[in-house]
Amino acid sequence: MSKEAFLGLVEGFLSGNYRVYLFVEEMGEKKTFSCKEKGCGKPFDAWPPDEEHIVPRLEPAEGAVPRTYKCEDEGKHENTIYWLKETEPKLFFTKT
Ligand SMILES: [Zn+2]
Question: Where in the chain are the domains?
Answer without folding.
Answer: 29-94
